Amino acid sequence: MTRRDLIKRASLLTLLAHPHTFVNALANPSRNRIRISACDWSIGKNSDLGAFDVALQIGLEGIQVNVGSTENNL
After folding, report:
1. Residues with Cβ within 8 Å of residue 69, at least 6 apart in sequence
2. What angle separates helix 3-17 from helix 19-27, to the nearest 10 degrees?
3. pTM of the model
């Protein structure tokens, strides 16, 4: 059996074992959109509410805000 055959068979087996997953994905394509977000420190705004503005400017849909650091015991 080749790797390609293995992948085909595994895909088919997955489809047969979980058909509701694929039916739901096809029925609701808007729910399957990938959302992109980042941590505030990764965009240079560690523990700064300005991270929301930067995230909006660069097209992110979410931001994880760091609420503190070792300096303020959080």
Report:
1. 46, 47
2. 80
3. 0.50
